[in-house]
Sequence to fold (348 residues):
Amino acid sequence: MMKAAVLGATGSVGQIFVQLLSGHPWFEVSVVAASERSTGLKYSEAAKWRIPTPIPKNVSDLDVVDIEPKAVKNTEDVDVVFSALPAEVAGKVEESFAEAGYVVVSNASSHRMDPDVPLMNPEVNCNHVCLIDEQRRRRKWSGAIVTNPNCSATVLTLSLKPIHDEFGIERIIVSTMQAISGAGYPGVASLDIVDNVIPFIRNEEEKMQNETLKVFGSPSKPAEFKVSASCHRVPTLDGHMEAVFVEPKREADPESVVAAMEKFVGEPQKLGLPTAPAKPVVVRREEDRPQTRLDRMEGGGMSVVVGRVRKDLTLMGVKYVVLGHNTIRGAAGCGILNAEYLKAKKYL
Ligand SMILES: NC(=O)c1ccc[n+]([C@@H]2O[C@H](COP(=O)([O-])OP(=O)(O)OC[C@H]3O[C@@H](n4cnc5c(N)ncnc54)[C@H](OP(=O)(O)O)[C@@H]3O)[C@@H](O)[C@H]2O)c1
Fold:
């Protein structure tokens, strides 16, 4: 077993890391780190556990340590570091871990757009892993930072991948309905979100647009199609839904788009990685699916669910609805799948 540290282990995404890594065949959590509010406490005392299954036994009694390489090293010799830190603190901290020789798999936005840092949604662009070699050369460190996209960009790019491969993309318009848990804990105040929709999420539209182009580009150059995003917070707990409108490069009717999505598998499926869902893109044919409550756990929360694929006469292409679990596929699950891919390719 490889030993893992989770930075930001007490937060919304950190808890999902702890839960998904419990019983994982390759990685086990042996260090948990968080802010000074939590250090010195047992994990079970520090984490306000909000997952309906109990805290995994092997993690419950761990002492929470500082988010510093020294504090982690003094606790356990770990092989991989998962970061679920807020962007404001992640930047420097992740660099210090990479400099100390650790491979950091991060959910934070701090390094996503660095030209030498892979921004990987594994079924879509795991070929970007080669940026690690350039990163190590440039920054003269033996560790590395690998990031996964923002939750809504992860859901979007996975659903677009079969269309991109078969028909090319000229432009996309996307409108999101994003769950409350996307804002972390305690997130949006209940008095703001109950019985309400908030048509603004700071920096989210820019992230969706820029990250989508980086993911679909070559490792050294972003893609050149056009993306326009409008992002909205809605009163669901987990699961981001997105209405997507695509103008493909080559003519694509709804049936051929559905066929491309249904047959799509990526490298993680071909390699048989433990967290890879059998079907990364699941298509529902009912007129009223996907639905957040019914479909967000498809593929253990690692698949995205597409429905209502139909002609779009404005962009002369197709439009559809996609749903993905924001803290699983859109965060910790995607990070774990990236780590599995790094191990399969001997970067870990
Ligand atoms: N939620 C999502 O759906 C989602 C999806 C994709 C990516 N992300 C990204 O994942 C990261 C974590 O998000 P989250 O939703 O889990 O946030 P969160 O619930 O607010 O958790 C933040 C975690 O970071 C720790 N932390 C906060 N300030 C710190 C500091 N100054 N020093 C050390 N540790 C500190 C907290 O520790 P304490 O408990 O000790 O305060 C907690 O463990 C963010 O970068 C976010 O943008 C989130």
